[in-house]
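INPUT
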Amino acid sequence: MDIRSLSTSHRHPQDAPYVHKVGLPPKQNLFSEFKATVKETLFADDPLRPFKDQPGSKKFILGLQAIFPIFEWGRSYNFTKFRGDLIAGLTIASLCIPQDIGYAKLANLDPQYGLYSSFVPPLIYAFMGSSRDIAIGPVAVVSLLLGTLLQNEIDDPVGNAAEYRRLAFTATFFAGITQVTLGFFRLGFLIDFLSHAAIVGFMSGAAITIALQQLKGFLGIKKFTKKTDVVSVMHSVFASAHHGWNWQTIVIGVSFLSFLLVAKYIGKKNKKFFWVPAIGPLISVILSTFFVYITRADKQGVQIVKHIHEGINPSSVNQIYFRGDYLLKGARIGIVAGMVALTEAIAIGRTFAAMKDYQLDGNKEMVALGTMNVVGSMTSCYVATGSFSRSAVNYMAGCQTAVSNIVMAIVVFFTLQFLTPLFKYTPNAILAAIIISAVIGLIDFDAAYLIWKIDKFDFVACMGAFFGVVFASVEIGLLIAVSISFAKILLQITRPRTAILGNLPRTTVYRNILQYPEAAKVPGVLIVRVDSAIYFSNSNYIKERILRWLMDEDELVNKSGQTEIQFLIVEMSPVTDIDTSGIHAMEELFRSLQKREIQLILANPGPAVIDKLHASGSAQLIGEDKIFLTVADAVASCCPKSMGEV
Amino acid sequence: MDIRSLSTSHRHPQDAPYVHKVGLPPKQNLFSEFKATVKETLFADDPLRPFKDQPGSKKFILGLQAIFPIFEWGRSYNFTKFRGDLIAGLTIASLCIPQDIGYAKLANLDPQYGLYSSFVPPLIYAFMGSSRDIAIGPVAVVSLLLGTLLQNEIDDPVGNAAEYRRLAFTATFFAGITQVTLGFFRLGFLIDFLSHAAIVGFMSGAAITIALQQLKGFLGIKKFTKKTDVVSVMHSVFASAHHGWNWQTIVIGVSFLSFLLVAKYIGKKNKKFFWVPAIGPLISVILSTFFVYITRADKQGVQIVKHIHEGINPSSVNQIYFRGDYLLKGARIGIVAGMVALTEAIAIGRTFAAMKDYQLDGNKEMVALGTMNVVGSMTSCYVATGSFSRSAVNYMAGCQTAVSNIVMAIVVFFTLQFLTPLFKYTPNAILAAIIISAVIGLIDFDAAYLIWKIDKFDFVACMGAFFGVVFASVEIGLLIAVSISFAKILLQITRPRTAILGNLPRTTVYRNILQYPEAAKVPGVLIVRVDSAIYFSNSNYIKERILRWLMDEDELVNKSGQTEIQFLIVEMSPVTDIDTSGIHAMEELFRSLQKREIQLILANPGPAVIDKLHASGSAQLIGEDKIFLTVADAVASCCPKSMGEV
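OUTPUT
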């Protein structure tokens, strides 16, 4: 094999001409190639690296620590860290208790199930999770999503409460199974298919939907639509304006919402006062409950929580549907809810890991989150995950490890055991106000504006998800988000960019003439760069696009009377791979050009490409002496005289 | 904005230093950017180019010619061309008549429906199609697919013949609608998602399945399975071995199959004798029919065609289901069958267009094929498309234009009107032999071997589709083919390649050190090339992969005691685009490196990337003086002394 390119244009003046061939990578056997691909796809993070060259007993300990990171960080745990965790844990507990009661309502479940979900899952996570900052529990978006999906199957969550609850546990079980499976089979990269932009839109839309749902409790409306789109909800609200609103409720709601928003504002203005918005909800609950209790405002139509079941989580193993019609339905709902919950938790985990600069193993996180939901589903919990708002509070309160989650769980435990009767007179309007003030933080204008500035297509995805959630339902919004994300990938794949290159004056560098107006085309030579791997999905397009560049160029040449195009150089640096369809397309291109008496020249094919060009015989067809190391070499071979002066 | 890079390393010795900045492309407004994207996605072939700068009347004629290309090529039609078309038309007619009768059986329809489908659709296509070589009519694979899908809905195609037929027309109607829609909305690129490799495997598998199905007619078996997988079929065959086989049938079948295969071999050996395999089937039919007629072998259990309805296509407009349950089922089947039919026709069209070097407009072709199927569904035809075997014969017989299809249609017309009674005594075994000899050509060992040599992943797709069809069903095979094709795309997107670059001795060229073992790393500098656009689907992976390269390099450095890494250069030439997630990943990478006191440097970001780096403020974060035109410039900026000697 003699593909050599005289790199004349690069040679140093005082040296003799120096020869570089286009490198043909060393042949790999099939097995090692396959192994490399699998490793790069599924084990890109090289999880077994620490196990290398270790004795057996050490391997066992390392394995245990890999599954239960608490055994790793626990050994260096000390009192200073505990002080941080204690304060953070108490803070997030005070925030989570009122939120949990509200979120359970979003999922159409009784209030205690929200509290249950803040007890068992955080404990499990503390042992298995590797994030130090995440706060585990029920979250608004997943609660709403779960509620919507479950209600699609069981119309009347109040009438069929037992059945509905059983389906919820089933869905939670499968959400956990989905999460564990993704993590165990190292398919965590699948959640990367929901783009950042789509998540921003989806979250904002969900926040607005959730806030709108709160109008029921906030205005004291009794008859409220079951749909979640803005049109139905507003219709419900205004239809009940005359006789359905309760002014006492509104007064309570508005005053405490104002209080919460002011607290939020104080916390935002001065980071030192982060605890003001954090304990605001608990103070509101205490004050308003006391107020309703002494004024007996519940007799005036102010709706109250009434009853929260006392005691910790009962077992729910027997309640999960392991057969029958609901098994499949539960599994379907669980998969969707599990994926969304994962997306949220991983995004939070990554954000805080980047802030404190520690590594987070996505797949291991998924196993931890999944296990906690599987155990949760057997102890009367519904889907728990990492909460944006509480994690931020946790972080700001100075949490050091997952022990803050344990502290929180203990507080919830005491609440469930002893304090539930105290919530009897808590008005629903307060819960609504707390949820509204919590979800407002999910509406991220800045992010949306940044997306608009950076990438218009991303903005379309963002808005699509947003409007889908607001005007249709969370499912539709999610579907739109995923579809647009996929459409973008497909677009990227089917319509890769190509560029015409020109020579930057006085260099041997060739660059896109649209980006560098000073770059000059070489007379008689057309240089096209293909900016993607050439695969079946785009091979035909690339071939035709190159021919169209040639046609355009021919037209220009005819008009201006320049030298006709005699050489077509395809710069292949960005072409990382080629498949059989791509090889066929290159051969067809070669033949088309041959008929027009234009010489095809390739510049800098990568290892995979040059290998396949040889395997298929295309390199011989095109001519091995027509394959060069650089565009400059290729150009030099076309028109030695015009390059002589450089 | 002052992103300038001193391209010192490229400067010509006798010149002063020359400055090139990293180009920031001219700002486009949103609308023109959007227009460019839509144009490149949907109108990549620039279909309106000939209409530019033409007067109104000329535009009308051009438009007419665009829809009916016959008005374009018809004007230069002459007797020489007609002679070619006449011979080709007669040849393909002699081939299609026996094939049609057999293929109709594959679709579980009466024989005349095969002939109907070779009468109307070719006529329509001749006016609207732009391929000169394709031969239109029913084809084996689509007939089998349609038969299988229809039988999934209607179990007993004989007992419920009328209902089954109506559903077949409905499916044909929607197949046509699908094809027109794809063409009209210029979504033709969607069929590119079935990769060449998958098609090779699918076609070979379908060929074997079809051949196995023929064992029924070939061996004269009466009770035969309705499944198409090899296990069920072989079970059926051997279960009936004792009493179900008919030796007279086998004698007829084997002798004529041998004759057909010998004819095929002669045609292959010497291209001049292409007509031998082409008229072989008709001769077999005539001889065997005559033989059965005089020996009355049908009384000995040799199954015969018996009755073909006389006369041309009756109208079937009223038979299409436009409402009810079958509407949706028909539409679903039609979409699948229409897509597969399209894939076959477009592949054939492109192959022959490349051979004769004319352009084929894929989207226009789809409109033509779709229209012909819509009209076909109203005139008792089932899905027709381009046939591999007949198109090849058409080409070799010297066809010049689509007139050969008209000639064929006229012959079929006479056959339907006057000759159908002659087929009464044609033995089914002959039809089986003809189909077997026709589909054998679809099994493409050479292509499969080439795929194996070029791309192992493609080979997996090919084999997956093949075994799916053979051991399960055509649907499963198709599903596997599409899934593997998609998986490949997703893999490409989520796990792009990265490479470590080194300096080729005595040049300023930096190349992958795995491909060029002579390339030398620069001490203290790690140069990573990212080989893909950075999108949400891979941004996290790319960030972590780069950090892992750094870790690996650090280990090496520690072992060998070289200079520690102080600079990380990311070569961004192949990064054609970046989205918001990608920008975030770059910023996270920058921060991670900052904590390790390593300087991040970017080399040659493309127009879209530099634009977005500026819009998001990342360029300022990283430092505009850390963005260079070439890797060589970037390296020069890190360690001026080490580069001094080049």
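end of record. Chain A touches chain B through 99 residues (CB under 8 Å).
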